[in-house]
Design brief:
Radius of gyration: 13 Å
Structural class: mainly beta
Helix content: under 10%
Order of helices and strands: EEEEEEEEEEE
Largest sheet: 7 strands, mixed
Number of strands: 11
Strand content: over 45%
């Protein structure tokens, strides 16, 4: 189970930090990621982190502004979002890919991020 939190309303140029706490079969987590879906658009990849090594990857649109990190002890992944702009407005979802699986099979409930210009 994934529980996302931290969304809200922020002015352009501001920052937010999203959190996603995992519970249950956390020992089998291979990767965790963040995705987002803006109104009228397809869900898109934002960032991912490999659980064992901490290696990361980012979408070009947010590279240099967002940082994904994890806390192994808390089984929590974070998304630090800086220099937010209106195009970042979306529902943000965290997801987990388990060992041996090719797809993200567990998804959080989503948290709304709204950036006002």
């Amino acid at each position: 189970q994934l529980q996302a939190s931290g969304g809200g309303l922020v002015q352009a140029g501001g920052s937010l930090r999203l959190s996603c706490a995992a519970s249950g079969r956390t020992v089998s987590i291979y990767r965790m990621g963040w995705f987002r879906q803006a109104p009228g658009k397809e869900r898109e990849f934002v960032a991912t982190i490999r659980w064992s090594t901490g290696s990361t990857d980012y979408a070009d649109s947010i590279k240099g502004r967002f940082t994904i990190s994890r806390d192994n002890a808390k089984t929590t992944v974070y998304l630090q979002m800086n220099e937010l702009n209106a195009e970042d407005t979306a529902v943000y979802y965290c997801a987990a890919k388990m060992a041996g699986q090719g797809l993200y099979s567990y998804w959080g409930q989503g948290t709304q991020v709204t950036v006002s210009s």
